[in-house]
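Reopening this one. Same input as before:
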Amino acid sequence: MSRLPPLRALQVFETVGHCGGISQAARRLGISVGAVSQQMKLLEDALGMKLTLKDGQRIRLNTVGERFHARCSTAFEELRVAVSEAERAKNPNNLYVSCLPSLMVKWLAPLVDEWGNGESDLDIYLDSTLEDTSEEEIADFRIGYGEHPQHAAHSVLLFRDCVVPTCSPLLLERVGCARELLEHRLIGIDSRPKFDSPPSWTQWFEALEGETGVPIAIRRNYSSSSAAIQAAIDQQGIVLAQFSMIARDVGAGRLVIPWPFAVPLPAPYYLSWHPNTLHKHQCRAFQRWIIGQGQKQDKITAAMLVDSWPSAVMDHS
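Same output, byte for byte:
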């Protein structure tokens, strides 16, 4: 196996690449410009090639340096993750949950905070990521979307969700008919190609009116559901949002549902876990609790889909 260059030189090089220059890297690292230049020279000597070039008064990475930096950044990120895992392992009473970003922010995190308040010595780590961690032993649990992962050792349907129009009560309280929504800016959520998008405004109107209508032009789109919901709270328009993500805002009066018609998402959320997860008592407790929360959310969705949304909203708030 090839001998690795000095670790300190690699660390300095990674910082230089992120900062875009020697002096900026020196400030971030808290060392002198000369020390940074020395480490860069050590690395180039160890590799036997140049990684930088002159750009006026500045130094920047050349083509080889940029490729090498991308690999180094990935490696250092893995090291940082490993250190974080080791730190969490100091306390065996820990819980690591991986979840889709918007669902984490708007649904899971507030619930876990309420549950975790009764677990004073429990270290909880919530990882918001699109990456599927269901096969990794790093995470205890993964909350994902779609069909149950075929490769997951253990998984269960958590809940199904639906979308409803929502906006700030300062923008609009209610409408006499659904088409009046078109008089206001409609906010869209488009997560493609990274992720399947929820039902669109065109699909919502088609489901409501029972026929294919004229496509609706959306001039404001977000890739993130949580960002789109915040835009609605900020009175920027009306968003077609998942009810699980807006229930607390509706209950707190930050959002209203101007036209109570719900359309189901095409697939459910699921909970999966690594086989070793349930060896820990806190993970067994979390699993029972989060499945119960999913069942409650599933009942709320079912109630909204049969037009009993007012009681569903009041029961949840």
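So the earlier flakiness isn't reproducible anymore. For the record, The longest strand covers residues 94-99.
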